[in-house]
Amino acid sequence: MCEKRHVSSSPSPLMLPSRRDSLFPAASVFCHPQLLSFVQNSPYRPFTDSKTFVDMQLTTHPHEVLARFAELPSQPTPEQYDQFLRWAFKQPDTQLVQHHTPLDYTDSLPSFVSQLQLPNRYVLDEFVMDIKKRWRMLARSFSHHNITEQHSLTSTLIPLPHPFFIPGGRFQECYYWDTLWIAKGLIVCDMLQSAKDAIRNLFHLVNTLGFVPNGNRVYYLNRSQPPVLTEAVLVIFRALGSTDERIEWLEEALPVLERELASFEAAHALSRVHPETSIAHQRLDVYNVVTDHARPESFKEDTATVDEMIARAPHLSTDYHSQIDLLRHLAAGAESGWDYSSRWFCNSDECLAETQATNVVPCCLNSILYKAESDMAAFHMTLAEYYKLSSQTSSGHPVTSDAIRMHIDKSKLYETRAAKRKHAIISVLWDSDQLFGFDYDVKEARNTGVLSIAGIMPVWAGCVDDSWTVEHAKQFVHKIMNVSGLLHDGGVACTSTVSKEQWDFPNCWPPLVDFAVETLRKLAVRFPESDADRAAEEIAARFLRSAYRGWQSENVFHEKYDCRYETGKRGEGGEYRPQTGFGWTNGTIMWLLKDYPHCLS
Questions:
Q1: How far apart are CA 330 and CA 486, in angstroms?
Q2: I want to staple 499 with a disulfide (CB 3.0 to 4.6 A). Which of 61, 153, 350, 385 is the partner?
Q3: Closest CA to 586 of 535, 550, 533
């Protein structure tokens, strides 16, 4: 198979608004820019969080709502505004999505804990059991007998076939990359079936929509999140107990993964988004969202950011294209999962109005894609080798030599793609002098200079120069632990930059802790004398102790923590209030405790 990369093609939207509104007619109201401005930017707005409005339901057909809206004056009285809101919208139907007790949940300790012989193990037992019980609090399922055609006319929720887990707080739906760490935590809690079902919901979204959206809401249908579905499939694959189970899982997953990676590439390839740049020939991707309005769930906040841009540069008040560009960058920043961070500012002026996320080639995104392509090559070869020996699928159907050859060819194709991306990462995103990765500013044709934990991701993905020695590995470990300024008493900061944004110093996000620990553990396998194992344990221990102390004092798990403290202090900043729950925090804690249980004994 030959590899073609179209340099001149425009990026493909993940979903056109016309298709979205056809599949989910309620979106024609909840994603209507003028109606959103009318409701969300009104001084009479009765809710503090923009997401509250778009999570409501319509009381009548979308056409009727839009017709009534068209009759309203642009400057309504408080009574007119309130009457329209009460007539057209209501609180979500609690019968549609219900609390769910997973079928594989038990009130017994996870098996990895019950086998331990540790002093003061009761400390660990109590902590772990409390986390496990919280899966019941976060588990949800759609009441499918209540899902009718009326649902798509009135609700922004996208139904899912299997039980799912919400992050918690304001996030009452399934989220793409959160699901990876939720699945990891479920596996450690001996809830493998729940983990598989959580991932199968993402399969369903790919099979029905063509991609995995940010979350299962209609207002997320123009963007995705970090493409970790292949990594999630690998996590499940490794947790399965037999070869037959693993083969069956790959047979189910591979067609989905191929479709998802293809749709992501079509919308995010650097060659499509920035064909004019000098590095357009490199196999790299950027976050990119095709939109011409503010995010529905953050409409008021995005409008305020545009107003701030105009206040800083008044001549932009009539520059519609600059305003739309900013809204695209804000949406791309949300797609990155790092919403928001100095990584996207592209200059020293740490201001959200300067966000240029689509102009940044992210180190983390391309590392994730490199690993996905490498894993896809391995998955296809695994199937080819199994079929050579068995001559049949996991379900007993005969396999032809052509089918085996197809998997071998696809394995080689993904190997080629991965090799090209590795070359691009090392050439563009990796600083061989600093032994660290940096994002690349397309407009300025240089790296951004922002030091972030994302800079370790090429090593996590296995994308480092083949000439590395143990000395390089030692220097890399020293950089993280002693030079970067990222390691603190409560874990690792996401960046070394102080700003008002939640993905900057001093916030410590659980998934990034997991990436850091896993990076060092992988490095230790290749270079046992590098001290990377000890560094991984130290990072895990600092975060685990902080999370434990926060739980002791407040009985909550935060979405993010303040890395400066070992007391479990919550992180601050961002466009919404700090949240608790919390799906990926619980999952990360359990995943780390599996390898470092002694940290709490």
A1: 25
A2: 350
A3: 550
- Residue 178 forms part of a structural domain: no
What is the domain count for the chain? 1
- Residue 251 neighbours by CB under 8 Å, 6+ apart: 383, 393, 394
Placement of tokens 């396999």 in the chain:
399
* Inter-residue contact 539 to 517 (CB < 8 Å): yes
Tokens for 193, please give them. Answer: 């079936």
Residue 502 lies in a domain: no
363 is in which domain, residue-wise? Answer: 269-444
- Is 473 within the bounds of a domain? no
Cβ neighbors of 358 (< 8 A, separation 6 or more) are 273, 286, 287, 288, 289, 328, 329, 332
* pLDDT tens column, 304-350: 999 999 999 999 999 999 999 999 999 999 999 999 999 999 876 67
Contact 543, 562 (CB under 8 A): no
d(CA 111, CA 129): 11
Residue 1 reports pLDDT greater than 50: no
How many whole angstroms separate alpha carbon 350 and alpha carbon 344?
9
Q: Are strands 139-142 and 97-99 parallel, antiparallel or unpaired?
A: antiparallel
Cα–Cα distances (Å) from 284 to 77, 214, 353, 571, in that order, read 51, 21, 26, 32
DSSP 356: -
State how far the Cα of 255 lies from the Cα of 233, in Å rounded to an integer: 12
Question: Does some domain include residue 527?
Answer: no
The 10s digit of each residue's pLDDT in 167-220 is 999 999 999 999 999 999 999 999 999 999 999 999 999 999 999 999 999 999
Taking only the tens place, the pLDDT of each residue in 142-176 is 987 777 778 999 999 999 999 999 999 999 999 99
Contacts of residue 295, defined as CB under 8 A and 6 or more positions apart, other chains included, come to 219, 302, 327, 330, 331, 334
**How many whole angstroms separate alpha carbon 62 and alpha carbon 179?**
31
Mention every residue, 6+ apart, whose C-beta is less than 8 A from residue 71.
none
Closest of 53, 134, 545 to residue 297, by C-alpha: 53
Q: What residues have CB less than 8 Å from 457, skipping those under 6 apart?
A: 363, 364, 367, 368, 437, 515, 519
